[in-house]
Design a protein that fits this description.
Blueprint: H1 10-19, H2 30-38, H3 41-45, H4 47-66
Helix pairs in contact: 1-2, 1-4
C-alpha cells in the first residue's frame, strides 16, 4: 500500500491513522505508524478505502505546499 503512494510523509500517516480511529502515540515513528495502519480493523476490512484516505492526504498536503496562500 505504501509503495503505491509516492511522497508519503509521517504527517500523512498520522492523519490516516487518526481518520480510521486509531490512537497515535506522540513518539510514533514512521514504521510504527505503518504497523498501526496495517494492523487496524479498518485496513483489514477495506484496504482500498484506507489507501484512498492516504492518497487524498498526500494530494491535499502537496497542494497546500504548492499554494501556501490558499489555506
Amino acid at each position: 500500500m505504501f509503495l503505491s503512494v509516492k511522497s508519503c510523509k509521517k504527517e500523512d500517516l498520522i492523519l490516516v491513522a487518526k481518520e480510521i480511529g486509531e490512537n497515535v502515540p506522540t513518539t510514533a515513528k514512521i514504521c510504527d505508524l505503518k504497523e498501526i495502519i496495517l494492523n487496524s480493523d479498518e485496513y483489514k476490512g477495506d484496504p482500498d478505502f484506507v489507501k484512498g484516505i492516504l492518497e487524498n492526504a498526500v494530494t491535499d498536503r502537496i497542494l497546500q505546499e504548492e499554494n501556501p496562500d490558499s489555506t
